[in-house]
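Incident log, structure service

09:12 report received: a user says their structure output differs between two submissions of the same chain.
09:20 pulled the input from the user's history:
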Amino acid sequence: MIEGHGDDLYRYENIKMNFSSNIYAGTDLNELEAFLATHLDVIRTYPEPSASSLEQMIACEHGISPDEVLVTSGAVDAIYLIAQAYRHHGACHILQPTFREYEDACRVFGYKEDESGDVCWVCNPNNPTGSVMPVAEVMALAARHRLLIVDQSYEDYTMARLLSPADAITCGNIILLHSMTKRFAVPGLRLGYITAAAPVINHLRNQYRPWAINALSLEAGKWLVGHKAVAIQDLTSYLAETQRLRTMLNEIDGIKANDTQTNFFLCTIQAATACELKGYLAHEHGILIRDASNFTGLSPHHFRLATQSPAENDALVVAIRNYVLRKLN
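09:34 re-ran on a clean worker, output below:
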């Protein structure tokens, strides 16, 4: 696990506005919390060894077989499981800049970086850029590699067309990663799942540890899927607010806010480093941003933002504008 992950609130005091986490902050979780409060007795017994009841619900939702679903303890758990399960391939290709855990997991299991490697990793929508690779390009990647892993953790944060589980299963050599953490805005539960052709899932399941999903997370997952919970009630408006925030930032001299198809995007600052800007915003304004300099291929001037409420977005823009003016004067 890399240092410098987003949402590092624990490093600071008095943070009032958090732009460092890509997870939607406005979700009402009261019903889920009330449900879990009445099901705490599940901690007295072992959970299902393989979360099969939740896998059946997810399979039904997607119109696929339970043999084509594997629930994991978050998407990162799935990343390390896949890297371990296919380590005999020896070489991988990672489309950069992207989530560092693919690189870290492949390093742990001895892969070498090679564009023509058997295993290819792509994040779509991509973290940290917010860009989306068209389905045709994803399929072309699959044709060039023996195995393509597509992390669709942010699939509920874009209007762009993405691969469906059925698409991946039909292709045969595509593994899709899904994040219930992102979909339902419940990062503390650590829930994700993999969809792929049955032989792929069987290979992964044979190497996965039992009781990976704790009893409370399992109950929460079943409740969320069963109730068809939706974290972002109005995605269109949320993404429109993202574009408004980008427009305001691009009006500041020395700030560039890049295009995005999601709720988050990369920025650069000319007058300082992202680390310096982050420290200023945190200590002077109680605002937390993501220093993106530790993403492979990015510079010390890159930072990432995730859209918050209009009032918070306005406050961020004022704070960054004041900082830039201070640096220039």
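09:41 both user submissions now match this output. Likely a transient worker issue. Closing.
09:42 reviewer note: The domain at 45-226 is CATH 3.40.640.10 (Aspartate Aminotransferase; domain 2). The radius of gyration is 20 Å.
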